[in-house]
User: What shape does this take?
Amino acid sequence: MPPQQNSGMGSMGSSMPPMNQPPKKSVGPIVGVIIIILVIILGGLYFWGSKLNMPTTGEESAASIMAKPDAQTESLKSQGTSDTVSSIETDLNATNVNGLNQEMGTIETQLNAQ
Assistant: This one.
């Protein structure tokens, strides 16, 4: 009877790998994933670098804007230093506050365009 038991187990046992050999691990999918990630990173760096190297057209730097003389700023600098009421009233009457936010419209359009 023992040979019959072995024959039944033999058909089941043949489909299973031997216990002493570890299963083979494939490195192909891991290498493929690493290559895909590297290509994505390199592509991102390429587009980021090309965006940084684009010439700015029609835009001024902050330093060039600050270097330009401004009529309102110059008029504020030329005000008197006296603290008498009549001098302060003269300075207030000479100050033009109507166009203070005149450039805000252009600043908002430039910010919205970006």
Remarks:
- The helical segments are 2-13, 28-52, 62-67, 71-77, 85-94, 104-113.
- Residues 28-52 form the longest helix (25 residues).
